[in-house]
Write a structure and sequence with these properties.
Blueprint (H helix, E strand, L loop, with lengths): L1 H33 L11 E6 L1 E5 L6 E7 L2 E5 L7 E4 L7 E8 L5 E11 L2 E8 L2 E9 L1
Antiparallel strand pairs: 1-3, 1-9, 2-9, 3-4, 4-5, 6-7, 7-8, 8-9
Amino acid sequence: MSSTLLFVFTRLHSGTIMRLTLFFPLISLALLASCSSPNADSDPYGTWVGKLITDEGQCPTEELSALRLRGNSLVFNPGLNSSVLHGSYHEGQQNYHAELVDKGMNNTPYRQTFDGYPVGRAIGGTYRSPRCRAHVTLVRR
């Protein structure tokens, strides 16, 4: 009789440990999921980075590009070069536009633009200049 009770106790004890062993990873996953970054459409503020992918021409694709939304200000830096495109953002807005107009050769305007939009937890967009057109997917940094 005592060996039967010992067997039953051992089985119950190992089952409890097994259940607890499975319980803690599930709780951890649930906590991690709740701490994940919010969607870009509901909270776009912060720094977003990604590499340009050239559609046409010669774009700065070697380095990361960065988009920063802070307050009412929007700044896009293609390929982390010396060009900084500025724009404005208003809460709830579902598109992002920044541009820079420099003097080009023969004093003609050299216009660079970035147009972006939220895509789930990322921001998609298009960068255009007289030399190139590229698309980019930016993720929160």
